[in-house]
């Protein structure tokens, strides 16, 4: 691997990025819109609206839409510092590289391992939901019943093939799928607004009396989880056109779009059933509130289309996470932490296809185990596997925001906007608060009040981080040259 060293004139720190030689990923293939589509797709917006928002309404009531705006504001603050780091630390590893640069190599490897585990948990857990939704859609349209795991395994194969073909091919698929998700929500919105809602159009959801309530505070964890994956913009730096501009633009577009999309779509659901009744109705229709609204305001064809687009929404999310996982694996492989084989790129597609193969094999094994044990694909595969991923990503966001503060206070000579450190400080405090909310309200995510079980799921993320820290110490003693490369940085 050939590297270009970029000297930081303010400090002795250097960053290492792959050259434009034959060992690198495809160059100049992703513009702002492509990166934005990739990371927004990871959040599966339609799946969130149809699958999670009803539960948020049943708990948070009329004020539920505001929770997504609050999450958007906090993550916008986070993005300011996050993007300021991308201009200084140009390595491939995203969270992993930024935390290494500011908090040290041990914390950096802990973050890298946590990122790999968390993104895998998010991606693989979704195969349970994909299988359930695809199986249900087929049964609804044809009366044919096919086991969920068949669709899950087919999904693994299709996602691998798209990842193998390269990020530009996957991006084109995601553009189409995300556009369709947006269109179906727009159709429902137009129908509800044209009918004047259930009891007239109101903005009660955004009034202070409904926003600042215990119920809305409880569902903030759901709101933050709905943005999962937006932070992976930095992972595509090597493949982006003019990355110093496209990556920040894509990040802000992704945060802004998701905040407005979620708040608007959930508000439409509130209007569809009326402020006075929506919470009770959502409690009775947690699994199908969006479908009930679609049936009432649009009709059978809208319900049928939504069934199909829920499946494609989940698929799009998994493809986006698959790409992010492969790039973390590539970064850790380049740095000598993971086996060098995982860093192999396809000679013509320039995709990390070996890392993609490994990720797909892990997914297949987990799907087969859950199917063989006859475990529930939704309540067990999705919930058990996804939950540690949600906790892990929020932890990584908090650590990265703290890293921004440390990095710029240490490197005062670097050019930056005056508000970068204050924004990162506010984001760090808010993300720590969200971490506490999510972990203390774990029963809402898992659907069980079993303290031991919930405790185990919460512990997976911090334990993974600690394992990475310990591993860094062992690498330092046994392979100092590999230790020096951790984070894609040159550590003196």
Explain what this protein looks like in three dimensions.
The structure is a single chain. The protein has 492 residues and is an all-alpha fold. Helices cover 72% and strands 2% of the residues. It has 20 helices and three strands. Helix 3 (64-86) runs antiparallel to helix 11 (243-273). The longest helix is centred in the first third of the chain and has 38 residues, at 105-142. The radius of gyration is 22 Å and the shape is globular. Residues 1-22 have low confidence and may be disordered. Its main location: membrane. It is found in: Cell membrane. GO terms for molecular function: transmembrane transporter activity.
Ranges where pLDDT stays below 50 over 5 or more residues in a row are 1-22
Would you identify the CATH architecture?
A: Up-down Bundle
Along the chain, the helix and strand elements come as EEHHHHHHHHHHHHHHHHHHHHE
- What fraction strand? under 5%
Record field, number of beta strands: 3
Share of residues in helices? over 70%
What is the H level of CATH, i.e. the homologous superfamily? Amino acid/polyamine transporter I
- Quote the average pLDDT: 86
- Looking at CATH, which topology would you report? Amino acid/polyamine transporter I
Rg calculated over all Cα atoms:
22 Å
What's the CATH first level? Mainly Alpha
Sheet bearing the most strands, described?
A: 3 strands, antiparallel
Instruction: Compute the number of structural domains.
Output: 1
Q: Given the helix and strand composition, which structural class is it?
A: mainly alpha
Q: Which strands sit side by side, in order, in the main sheet?
A: 1-2-3
């Amino acid at each position: 691997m050939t590297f270009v060293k970029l000297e930081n004139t303010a400090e002795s720190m250097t960053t290492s990025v792959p050259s434009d030689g034959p060992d690198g990923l495809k160059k100049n293939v992703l513009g702002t819109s492509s990166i934005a589509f990739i990371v927004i797709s990871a959040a599966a917006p339609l799946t969130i609206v149809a699958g999670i928002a009803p539960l948020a309404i049943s708990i948070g009531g009329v004020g539920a839409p505001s929770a997504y705006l609050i999450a958007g504001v906090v993550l916008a603050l986070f993005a300011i510092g996050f993007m300021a780091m991308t201009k200084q630390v140009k390595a491939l590893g995203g969270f992993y590289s930024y935390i290494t640069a500011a908090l040290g190599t041990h914390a950096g490897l802990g973050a890298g391992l946590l990122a790999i585990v968390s993104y895998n948990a998010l991606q693989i857990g979704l195969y349970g939901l994909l299988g359930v939704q695809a199986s249900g859609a087929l049964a609804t349209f044809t009366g044919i019943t096919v086991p969920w795991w068949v669709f899950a395994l087919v999904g693994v194969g299709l996602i691998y093939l798209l990842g193998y073909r390269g990020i530009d091919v996957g991006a084109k698929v995601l553009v189409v799928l995300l556009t369709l998700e947006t269109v179906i929500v727009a159709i429902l919105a137009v129908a509800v607004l044209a009918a004047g809602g259930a009891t007239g159009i109101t903005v009660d959801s955004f009034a202070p009396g409904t926003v600042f309530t215990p119920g809305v505070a409880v569902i903030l964890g759901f709101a933050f989880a709905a943005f999962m994956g937006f932070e992976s913009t930095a992972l595509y730096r090597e493949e982006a056109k003019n990355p110093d501009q496209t990556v920040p633009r894509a990040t802000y577009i992704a945060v802004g779009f998701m905040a407005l999309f979620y708040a608007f779509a959930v508000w439409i659901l509130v209007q569809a059933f009326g402020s006075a009744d929506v919470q009770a109705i959502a409690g009775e229709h947690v699994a199908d509130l969006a479908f009930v609204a679609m049936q009432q305001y649009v009709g059978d064809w809208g319900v049928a289309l939504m069934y199909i687009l829920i499946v494609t929404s989940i698929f799009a999310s998994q493809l986006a996470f698959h790409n992010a996982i492969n790039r973390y694996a590539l970064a850790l492989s380049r740095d000598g932490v993971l086996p060098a084989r995982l860093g192999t790129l396809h000679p013509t597609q320039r995709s990390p296809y070996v890392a993609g193969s490994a990720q797909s094999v892990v997914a297949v094994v987990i799907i087969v185990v859950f199917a063989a044990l006859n475990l529930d694909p939704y309540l067990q595969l999705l919930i058990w596997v996804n939950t540690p991923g949600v906790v892990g990503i929020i932890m990584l966001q908090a650590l990265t925001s703290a890293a921004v503060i440390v990095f710029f206070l240490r490197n005062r000579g670097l050019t930056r906007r005056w508000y970068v450190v204050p924004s990162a400080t506010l984001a760090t405090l808010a993300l720590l608060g969200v971490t506490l909310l999510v972990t203390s309200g774990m029963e809402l995510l898992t659907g069980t009040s079993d303290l031991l079980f919930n405790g185990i799921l919460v512990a997976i993320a911090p334990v993974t981080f600690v394992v990475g820290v310990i591993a860094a110490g062992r690498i330092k003693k046994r392979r100092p040259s590999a230790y020096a490369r951790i984070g894609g940085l040159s550590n003196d």
